[in-house]
Design goal:
The protein is α+β, with helices and mostly antiparallel strands. The protein is about 30% helix and about 15% strand. The protein contains three helices and four strands, in the order H-H-H-E-E-E-E. The radius of gyration is 16 Å and the shape is globular.
């Protein structure tokens, strides 16, 4: 999938990591691409038209439209906290600095009865 939907630069990023980390890096990047194309309203079919650029560990990832090299939608994308090898991301309109909080709700079968 990386060869089909990721650019050579994105594949270079993935393969710059040790073997045991590559799968998670792939999912992290895929998730950022996915949240960006959904935020633009284009949908998952356009995931290959966007590159994710990661310039340093301290800066937010950027989504770049491959067709014209523009940043596309004026939004901030970020990787959310990962737990249990899951990847999730968020795309928010604007370039402000955002913070988020994740809540963990636990339910059991009794919560769904009368």
């Amino acid at each position: 999938m990386a060869k089909r939907y990721f650019s050579s630069e994105e594949n270079e990023i993935i393969f710059s990591y040790p073997d045991e980390m590559r799968k998670q890096i792939f999912y992290n990047m895929w998730t950022l691409k996915k949240v960006y194309v959904k935020a633009t309203g284009r949908g998952i079919g356009d995931i290959g038209s966007v590159d994710i650029s990661i310039s340093s560990e301290n800066s937010a990832p950027l989504a770049i439209n491959k067709a014209n090299g523009s940043m596309g939608l004026d939004c901030t994308i970020c990787q959310l906290l990962q737990e249990n090898d899951y990847a999730d991301g968020l795309a928010v309109e604007g370039k402000e600095k955002y913070s988020y909080e994740i809540f963990n709700f636990q339910m059991d079968d009794n919560d769904f009865t009368n």
